[in-house]
Each structure stands twice: as C-alpha cells, then as structure tokens.
Automatic annotation (TrEMBL):
Keywords: GTP-binding, Lipoprotein, Membrane, Nucleotide-binding, Prenylation. Belongs to the small GTPase superfamily. Rab family. One of its GO terms (biological process) is endosome to lysosome transport. This is Ras-related protein Rab. It comes from Neolamprologus brichardi. The lineage of its organism: Eukaryota, Metazoa, Chordata, Craniata, Vertebrata. Transmembrane segments: none annotated.
Length: 213
C-alpha cells in the first residue's frame, strides 16, 4: 500500500556550516547548489545567512540541509560558537587563486573542531573546497599534497569546485551528506531538534542585529 511506504520515510534535518576567508565564494557555492544561480556581484555576507536544500536522498529518505553561510570576516570571533552550535557537517572553502585563503584553512578547521563536536565527541565531518578552479593555473593544486593535507588536518576529503561553471558542487555536497548519514544512521532527527535550530536562528538574528554598528 502506498500509505505504508510513506510512513516508513525517514526525514532528517542537518545543519551544515560553510566557512572560510572573506571572498572565497561561500555564498556563490550555496546559491549554485540550492538555486542553480550564479552572479559575479554578491555582496559580502554580514554575520550569517541561511539557505535550505531539500534532497530526496532515496525512496525512503528525505534530507533537509540547512546551510549556514558564515561571513569570512567573523574570523573566529565569539559569535562563531553560537553559529556552530548543533552543526553536523561543514565545508571549509578557499580560493585557489589566493594562497592566503588556503593558509587560513587550518585555522578555520581548528576553530571548528574546538567549538562543535558530534554527540560521541568526534569532530563533525568536514570537506575542503578548492573553489574558483575555473580560474586556476594548470596543476596549481598538487593532488598528493592536498590528499596529505586533508589527512593531517582531519578533512574527509577535498574537491576542486567552481560555482561559476557548476563544477563538483553537487558532488561535494553528496559526499558530505553521505558521511553525515553514516554518522546518524537509524537516528532520524526529532521535531524538537528542528525547533531548537529555529530558536538558534532567532538568537543569532537578534545577536547579529544588536552587534551591528
């Protein structure tokens, strides 16, 4: 019966962070992934922004991915602890054309790991995105070096991405969600968790507004 199959459907709500230096393309990646849009003219994110992607993962699994676009200029400030709360996965983004943004990746990862953990105490799954690969010089990212960097810093893996040309954005997201689901197997999010995230949003919105100059 059709009704029976509906009742067996598992629904998840996953909070995923998108962090990294100012101007690396975090907002562009999210807009491409969620809305299939790209613009050269996004304004710098102030504080934090949100986007929701609903994924029919398989016939019995619905995933709601709540993407938190955290401003690069937050730079490990006090508010990031509030932003990171209850996240179950993260993308750390750098710009392949600006070496300084890669140099900052380890700091962002360390900050992430120090402020949020899974229920079992492990770091949340995180994936490194080498963004703007449409602009890179040939062989600017050495695969072996990047693989080694990910092992040393605790990333699940890395992807060269381009929000502009829609390269590897969906693939990177799928890879991260697979790992989040592996951690969360058989434990669908309760409604109360969803409410708690909504409350977090309201807290962040209120604190962000009060912090504006």
């Amino acid at each position: 019966m059709a009704g029976g199959s509906v009742s067996e459907c598992k629904e998840y709500l996953f909070k995923v962070l998108v962090i990294g230096e100012l101007g690396v393309g975090k907002t562009s990646i999210i807009k491409r992934y969620v809305h299939q849009l790209f613009s050269q003219h996004y304004r710098a994110t102030i504080g934090v922004d949100f986007a929701l992607k609903v994924i029919n993962w398989d016939s019995k699994t619905l995933v709601r991915l709540q993407l938190w676009d955290i401003a690069g200029q937050e730079r490990f400030g006090n508010m990031t602890r509030v932003y990171y709360k209850e996240a179950v996965g993260a993308f750390v983004v750098f710009d392949v054309t600006r070496g300084s943004t890669f140099d900052a990746v380890s700091k962002w990862k360390h900050d992430l790991d120090s402020k949020v953990k899974l229920a079992n105490g492990n770091p949340i799954p995180s994936v490194l995105l080498a963004n703007k690969c449409d602009q890179k010089k040939e062989n600017s990212n050495n695969t072996a070096l990047m693989d080694n960097f990910c092992k040393e810093t605790g990333f699940l893996g890395w992807f060269e991405t381009s929000a502009k040309d829609n390269i590897n954005v969906d693939e990177a997201a799928r890879f991260l969600v697979e790992n989040i689901l592996a951690n969360d197997k058989g434990l669908p999010y309760e409604e109360s968790n969803g409410d708690r995230i909504k409350l977090d949003q309201e807290t962040v919105a209120a604190e962000s507004k009060s912090g504006c100059c």
